[in-house]
Here is the input.
Amino acid sequence: MHADELHPLPAEARPRERLSMYGAQFLADDELVALVLGGGRALTRARDLLTANGGLRELSLAMPEEISACVGVGRAGASALVAAFELGRRCEGRKLGWAESVCHPKQVADFVRAELGARQQEHFLVLGLDARQRVRQMRTAGIGSLAQVDVHPREVFRPLVRAGMHSAVLVHNHPSGDCEPSESDLRLTARMVEVGRLVGIPVLDHVIVCDHDWTSLAARGCMETLVPPPAKL
Here is the structure.
């Protein structure tokens, strides 16, 4: 029998009551996970899950089968957790509204960080913009390894051309946490800029996103000779 069954928590120490009294932002990770799981011994099961997976970030990336393998969680609890993490990622990605123009690369980084920041492989996204630089399309053009991703211009520009996009912003993540652009990043950017010129869809920027940081090649001056000045973000 577990300790919390032998000595039930007083009301003021229970996650649900603490949420009502102090707000979700003041609850610990295990308390929030326990509220999603619900049921008996929720706090113990939440702590076991976090320990088994190495923390909240790692748990947010776990598959339902991996979560349900923890004793006492089951398919229902695993499904609830996966759904909760996905909702959080989607809410984070809604920071840039459909009708909002992209005026700064930070907007792009905030928009896609929820999608890319925690990925363990490099993902290459393409944002299609209209004439007012509003995001009208987002497509994954390539998925690579921990250290690199190989992207063909065809996969980048075909959706943009078909949708009649006015311009594009390239985005990819660095799972290592280092947002410094590599030589291959710079070569790939130059190649895409050249193709964009040929098809009439200028590439405005290439933003590299990490968990808690980002880098804009345009802002760093890496694209000064590649992107026409009026088109910069």
